[in-house]
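Working notes for the structural subgroup meeting. M.R. asked for a predicted model of this chain before we commit to crystallization trials. I am recording the input and output together here so anyone reviewing the notebook later can reproduce the run.

Input as submitted:
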Amino acid sequence: MQNLIEIPARRGKAAFVAAGQTVTVINTHGEQVVDTWAFNRADLSEFMSNEHTRAHSLHLVPKPGDVLRTNQRRPILTLMEDTSGGVHDTLIAACDRYRYAFLGVEGHHDNCTDNLFAGMAELGLTPPEVPSPLNLFMNIPWDANGALQFAAPPRPVPGGYVRLRAEMDLVIAFSACPQDILPINGKAAKTVEAHFTIGA
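Returned structure, recorded in token form:
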């Protein structure tokens, strides 16, 4: 396997990916949510869009073989392989300071929105906005009445991964979600690091 790149616990990381390369996102410990974004490297205003992807795939959770599309409806990533159990979310916005204030946090709390900007800043880039992320390894069950409940993945797979192929030159960005109030990062709401690799 290619060299592991760490997404530090509660932090963000971004990287350049060339068209045709693969990105493997690893749920190292089995219960860490990884917010994921992808931007057209030549034009950051074009980015992976869950809304546009769902209009083509016709289901909520991406599956192997699905093409993930941009806000211009162009392919940006293809989901090639998923050994994680296939539990992901495409509906919930990235956490931010407003979310934690709503949950009763006073003062600063690490959040995925800040992590996106920090990860991109390491590459000298600033995202023009915060798109809705693909929340890898995040279990959001919906019932028949349209109600949801935050929950840890039912069968965490330590070392499980999602492999994506870049369909254009892009910037990929991740956040090891620092949510430690709601139990989306395991039953104890513990936040840990995750990893990814970039391969040919």
